[in-house]
From TrEMBL:
Pfam families: Peptidase_C39_2. It comes from Robertmurraya beringensis. This is C39 family peptidase. Keywords: Membrane, Transmembrane, Transmembrane helix. Residues 68-233 form the Peptidase C39-like domain. It comes from the Bacteria. The chain crosses the membrane at residues 6-28. PANTHER family: LMO0724 PROTEIN, PEPTIDASE C39-LIKE DOMAIN-CONTAINING PROTEIN. The lineage of its organism: Bacteria, Bacillati, Bacillota, Bacilli, Bacillales.
C-alpha cells in the first residue's frame, strides 16, 4: 500500500511540475516577460547569468563589436524634414515589414498647434505629442517629432513588439544591438553635443519644450570601442561611423530617446 501511495504522489508531483513549467514558459514568451528579462540584463560589459522563469539560465554578453545589415532609406527629396519616419521605415523593414517612408509620413500623428510669436516668445506644438509643421517642404515652418508618436506608429505594424528605451543607459541599447536588433534614436545633425545657443524654448499646450533645429533621427546598426555605426537618412549612407563618446553625449542631450524591437523567442534562445 505504501509503495502504491508513493507512486501516486510521484505521478501527481510530475503533473503539477509540468503544468507550472508550461505556465511559466508562456509568461516569459509574452511582451512583459521578455521586457522584464531584458530589464535585468547587465548594464556593463560583464557576462551575467539571468535566471528566467520557465527557461534554462540565460547568459547574455555584450559583444565587443556589432555591425548589422539593415536596409538603408534616404529621406530626400520627398521628405526633407522626415528623418524620424524614414529611420522608422528602416527599422520596420529590418523586421520584414513592407512599408515605406511616405506611408509612415502620412500616418504619423500630427500636432496642428499653429506657430505664433509674441514678444520674443514662441508658441507652437510639442513634438512629444505629434509631428510639428511641414515635413514635405522647407517652404513652410516645420520641426519634427519625438519618440512617443513614433513608438505608437510602429505599434500599428508590430503590436506588442515595440519597446521604448528612452531614458535608459546606452549600455542597454548595446544589449539590443548584441541581440542583432537595430535601435531608432533621436540625435542631432553634428553627432556631438551642441552648445546652449543651439537650443530654444517653446511654450506649448502641454508645457514648455526645449528644442534645436539640428534635431535628427537615425537607425543605430552597430558599435565598437571607438565608433557608433548607423544608417543615416540624410546622406543615405549605410553604417556611417561617428566617434562613440560624442555621439552618446549628443543622444543624452536630446533626452536619451530610443525605441527598438522586442526579441522573439528564437533570438533569446540563440543568445544563451
Amino acid at each position: 500500500m505504501g509503495e502504491r501511495v508513493g507512486k501516486i504522489a510521484l505521478s501527481i508531483l510530475i503533473i503539477v511540475a509540468s503544468a507550472i513549467s508550461y505556465f511559466l514558459f508562456a509568461i516569459i514568451k509574452n511582451e512583459g516577460g521578455v521586457r522584464n528579462l531584458l530589464d535585468r540584463i547587465s548594464q556593463d560589459n560583464k557576462v551575467e547569468t539571468v535566471k528566467a522563469s520557465g527557461m534554462n539560465n540565460l547568459v547574455v554578453q555584450l559583444k565587443e563589436n556589432v555591425l548589422l545589415d539593415a536596409p538603408i532609406v534616404k529621406q530626400f527629396p520627398e521628405l526633407p524634414r522626415g528623418c524620424e519616419v524614414t529611420s522608422l521605415a528602416m527599422l520596420l523593414q529590418y523586421k520584414g515589414i513592407d512599408i515605406g517612408k511616405m506611408e509612415l509620413a502620412e500616418r504619423v500623428i500630427k500636432n496642428t498647434t499653429p506657430l505664433k510669436k509674441e514678444n520674443g516668445t514662441i508658441y507652437w506644438g510639442n513634438p512629444n505629442d505629434g509631428y510639428i509643421g511641414d515635413m514635405y517642404s522647407y517652404s513652410n515652418p516645420g520641426y519634427g517629432v519625438y519618440h512617443k508618436p513614433i513608438k505608437k506608429l510602429a505599434e500599428e505594424f508590430l503590436p506588442g513588439q515595440i519597446i521604448d528605451l528612452t531614458g535608459r543607459n546606452f549600455e542597454e541599447l548595446k544589449t539590443y544591438l548584441s541581440l542583432e536588433i537595430p535601435v531608432w534614436v533621436i540625435i542631432n545633425t553634428t553627432y556631438q553635443p551642441l552648445s546652449e545657443n543651439a537650443f530654444e524654448t517653446w511654450k506649448t499646450p502641454s508645457g514648455e519644450v526645449k528644442i534645436t533645429y539640428k534635431e535628427h533621427s537615425v537607425l543605430i546598426t552597430g558599435y565598437d570601442n571607438k565608433y557608433i555605426y548607423f544608417n543615416d537618412p540624410i546622406t543615405g549612407i549605410k553604417n556611417l561611423a561617428k566617434p562613440k563618446d560624442p555621439f552618446i553625449e549628443a543622444w543624452k542631450q536630446m533626452g536619451s530617446q530610443a525605441i527598438s524591437l522586442l526579441p522573439d523567442a528564437n533570438t533569446i534562445e540563440g543568445s544563451k
